[in-house]
Amino acid sequence: MPPIKKQPKKLAPSANVADIESKQALVSPNVASPSTSKEDKTLEKKNDMVFKGRQRTNGPLFEEDGYLWQVSSDPDGKPTRVCERIDIASMRQNIDTKEMELELVFNQHGQEMSKYISRGMLSRRNFLELMKYGVDVAEHTVSQILVYLNGREKRAPLKYAHSLVGFGEHDGAPIFKLQTAIGTNSEYIGNLLVESKGSFEEWARIVRDEVLGHTPLELALVMGLAAPVASLVAKETGLEVIVAHLYGDSTQGKTTATRLAVSPFGCPHTQQGGLIRLWNSTKNAMFASIRDTHGVPIVFDEASMHSGEFSTLIYQIAGGTERARLNKESELRESSQWSGVFFSNGEMSLLAKAVKNTGVRVRLTEFGNVNWTRSAANADALIEGLLKNYGHAGPVFVEHLMKIGIEAILNMWRAWRVRFHEQIAHKDQLSQRIADKMAIFLVTTELAKVALNVNFNTESIKKMLLEVVENISGEADLSKNAYNHLMEAVAQHNTKFETEHFEGNRSELWGKCESRNGRPREVLILPQVFNKIMAEGGFEDTTVILNKWRAQGILNCEAKKHTRKRVLCGRTVRVYVIQVKDDVEDELAWEEQKPKPRKRPVPSSPKASNLFDEN
């Protein structure tokens, strides 16, 4: 830095004028003297260039030529170089968390760098931590730099950002957040790949050529687009989160169908940040993927990677609310929520791995053994095209939803739920809940026709959904499934049951089969054995099953009890008495044994005795 010409002192007419000139000298030591040499004028010109445009209200530091300089407190002194350039280019507020960040720009060996930092970093101890990122700061300069940045912050422009995706609010108005937000000026700063790639026109061509005309693929795309519709309806009606599981052989195109479903909103891939996640993630990681997501579909791929049963996960995802937790201060932390449509796929049925509760079946919509793609060539063309073109249709579709308004959407949904429920062939107490979810897909079909100019076949999609509902209705009879499971267990372990001709396995006796006219009429079974058989079949709540059987006349029991006292091996014990229905008699492989010549003794072994414990 060239030296600054020493300034001669002026005679001040008054003390006040002298004070002003003294302060000006501290900030502007380059004021030229009335008489200067040629060399001094050259130096003054260079100094004028250095100080030109300087923000004089920023304190003793100013920026020039890629460095921060300190103005000398001595009028005769020259500026001192403090460090390489450090500045605040902008402030950024997260509209989801309300946190404020600063865009710090700095020079590192002549190269400009930038990094977002929290406002809490503008303290002496925290700011020194930025040295590891190449910020030119040291113990003896940090205080000066912080004073300078405090002034620069007040002049930095304010930007908005969001870290969550889907529906939300900003300044009291509804918005929808992807890479940019619909309804406000905000940029996404989260980890999901929800930006657009390729073009909407090419994506629409792929849909016309590879999707339309094949109902399973049309339905897959509709289910993905239904995520924002389901989220809007859920906010007004409390509709459950829709969880759809696609299972079957690996050649049926399940993964391709889920790629198609999420392609309107973001990257249809399992790569880092893609909208397709893996089942082998930890439970916390899985819920982090959907936490506070409202209206953007997420897929969990390859359910076979997950160990354990799925019941709890299904309940929690469909419930739309995270389990309540306490923070470090033992205070109840606010639970995260989510809404919309979420997908799963794998070679196996999740219901086969879940407990046999009616609640699980009504919360999970399964599509089993469906040929989602026409052929291998169809699947290859879809995958190749979708990985190059995605993220365009979702924003267009949501803009249409926000334009027509929630009341119009609700009216369409109410009409469809009635029409669909009327067309269910075998109705039960769960049919309306299932129809409510299926109506979301049919509403989406009609809305997408207008918003995206895609000619979906509504009638074919409805027919396929009705077939799915019939399968759900056939499997949703908890009492019937539990009854069949019990009778299969009795037939399989018939040597552990007494009959009139056979005293049973004395080391492990489960109960007794009583007959009339040579035909089995009642199964007597010990409660602890019954509970074990039900648990092995995935039926957790035996009380619900027993209540249903009592109402149906299948359970022969005392008033206000589920059991009766009967005699087993010469001892009176409490057992469940199950009536054998005629329609399953042929399925029971009762093995008749010849009577034994000896009298049946009372069992004395510990194992057999434990079976008669009434507790």
UniProtKB/TrEMBL annotation:
DUF927 domain residues: 71-335
InterPro entries, A to Z: Cch_HTH, DUF927
Region Disordered, annotated ranges: 23-47, 590-615
Source organism, top-level taxon: Bacteria
Annotated Basic and acidic residues bias: 37-47
Polar residues composition-biased segments: 25-36
A Pfam family reported for this protein in Swiss-Prot or TrEMBL: HTH_56
Ranges for domain Cch helix turn helix: 477-582
Protein name in the entry: DUF927 domain-containing protein
